TrEMBL record:
One of its GO terms (molecular function) is ATP hydrolysis activity. Coiled coil: none annotated. Residues 205-271 form the ATPase AAA-type core domain. One of its GO terms (biological process) is double-strand break repair. InterPro entries: ATPase_AAA_core, Bact_Antivir_Def_Nuclease, P-loop_NTPase, Rad50/SbcC_AAA. PANTHER family: ATP/GTP PHOSPHATASE (PTHR43581), ATP_GTP PHOSPHATASE (PTHR43581:SF4). It comes from the Bacteria. This is AAA family ATPase. Gene3D superfamilies: P-loop containing nucleotide triphosphate hydrolases. Residues 7-82 form the Rad50/SbcC-type AAA domain. It comes from Candidatus Fermentithermobacillus carboniphilus. Pfam families: AAA_21, AAA_23.
Length: 463
């Protein structure tokens, strides 16, 4: 059994209700992932916090600062499982900080949900205890304020040492070489972690934030069972990009038969191969009505799979393109890689700043612009501009009709730059001459186009 969706109302920024569909594991790499993206202060950590509330055997208390006034200072967190049975935590009839379970016996049980906040720290000197996974989930409370050290993690450290081989096998998938680590006893009677790097030793107080974060994440994975639910807020924190890539691949492998929820600002944790396999991307944004979630439907999955298999243009859905998930808005779509470079040159020559970001290295041709625009539309992007060559006027008209809220326009030439004649192609007379300079007779038209883009993308423009 799996979780189909979670719905949050009244918790922090969620006026609500705001629903997020979960990825359902099907045996394919990444299929069980739910990746929550969006700008800062858009509610990503709050969704992780809501899952943490659901992992408590007793109904949690929510402080006044955690409850949204516009929602009547009442909190409601609902989950629905694959049998369409819901359970929820909600503020009691009396109101205030206290909550109650509704249908508490429904799946998932609280012990099934393992949650890691973004601020992953523990006391470097600790007492001795040994906690199983279920005991740790039960003991790990819901703090009234964020940023506190994670309670009882020392019990998991002793558990790691008791299962050293299994833990190190998973840690070694990300971190090479593995440090030689052990639990040591200080003369004052407290315990600490000792790390040995080729004879250079330090205790857990001197461990880097990235290493500490990895210990928490690997601990959440290595003794989990198929069917588990694991939520990790900002898995990328303090990690070098090479480690982010390895960790993302490791998490995607575990998501073959587990549900893993990630709130992230890193493009390494968003991969279109996982989406095609069944993963869900949820983009949270703050609008006048409150926090809103946008998710891709199945409408574009087959088209995305076609782009993913485009060996001639692998950049269409590459790492640079994935950066679009982390833009607030104002996306500029262009046909190809050279367009990204040349339009920047033109803007510089005209001394005009474009208040938008180009989508990756282009969409791989005018015929792909409809797919990318559709994806952005479903993910809630309000302001998108598309620039096409003059010989694609018909496509421009179709795009404008299908996406009336976006702006599509053609340039006054059949290409952005001039190209010499070759056997397979006539010469192309572009906006830029052979030296990369904007031709004089195009300056007025391109100035008008760029000013039109600026006007549309301006924060003061009417959407």
């Amino acid at each position: 059994m799996h979780v189909k969706w979670i719905e949050v109302t009244g918790l922090r920024g969620f006026t609500g209700p705001c629903r997020i569909q979960f990825g359902i594991p099907n045996g394919e790499t990444g299929s069980g992932l739910t990746v929550i993206v969006g700008p800062n202060n858009a509610g990503k950590s709050t969704v992780i916090e809501a899952l943490r509330a659901l992992s408590k055997p007793s109904p949690p208390s929510f402080s006044e600062g955690q409850r949204n006034v516009k929602a009547g200072s009442r909190v409601e967190i609902r989950v629905c499982n694959s049998e369409d049975i819901t359970k929820e935590i909600r503020t009691t009839e009396a109101g205030g900080s206290e909550t109650e379970w509704v249908n508490p016996g429904a799946w998932p049980p609280p012990s099934q949900i393992f949650v890691l906040p973004s601020r992953r720290t523990f006391q470097p000197f600790f007492g001795k205890s040994l906690l199983t996974r279920e005991q740790f989930v039960t003991a790990y409370g819901l703090p009234p304020v964020r940023g506190q050290p994670i309670d009882h993690f020392s019990g998991r450290i002793f558990q790691m040492q008791a299962n050293r081989d299994a833990f190190d096998r998973v840690l070694g998938r990300v971190l090479r070489p593995l440090p030689d680590w052990r639990i040591e006893l200080a003369d004052n009677g407290t315990y600490y972690l000792k790390f040995d790097f080729w004879g250079q030793c330090h205790n857990s107080d001197g461990a880097g934030d990235g290493l500490v974060s990895l210990l928490f994440i690997v601990d959440a994975l290595y003794d989990s069972q198929p069917g588990s639910i694991i939520a990790i807020d900002e898995p990328e924190l303090s990690l070098h990009p090479s480690l982010q890539r390895k960790l993302a691949d490791l998490i995607a492998e575990y998501a073959k038969d587990r549900q893993i929820v990630l709130a992230t600002h890193s493009p390494y944790f968003v991969d279109w191969a996982w989406v095609v396999a069944g993963a869900r991307i949820a983009r949270l944004v703050r609008e006048s009505s409150g926090l809103v979630s946008y998710q891709l439907t199945d409408k574009y999955l087959k088209r995305i799979e076609g782009l993913r298999r485009n060996l001639n243009n692998p950049h269409i859905l590459g790492l640079d393109a994935r950066g679009v998930f982390f833009l607030e808005d104002n996306v500029i779509l262009v046909e190809g890689q050279e367009d990204v470079i040349c339009y920047r040159q033109i803007a510089q020559q005209l001394q005009i700043d474009l208040p938008g970001e180009f989508y990756g290295w282009g969409v791989g041709g005018a015929h792909n612009m409809r797919i990318i625009a559709g994806v952005l539309n479903e993910l809630g992007f309000k302001k998108v501009v598309g620039l096409l060559d003059n010989n694609h006027r018909a496509e421009c008209d179709l795009l404008s009709e299908e996406f009336p809220g976006y702006r599509f326009m053609t340039i006054p030439a059949d290409d952005v730059r001039s190209k010499p004649e070759i056997k397979a192609r006539d010469p192309v007379y572009g906006l830029l001459d052979e030296d990369g300079t904007l031709r004089d007779h195009y300056r007025a038209q391109m100035t008008e186009i760029f000013r039109s883009i600026n006007s549309y993308l301006s924060p003061d423009a009417t959407r």
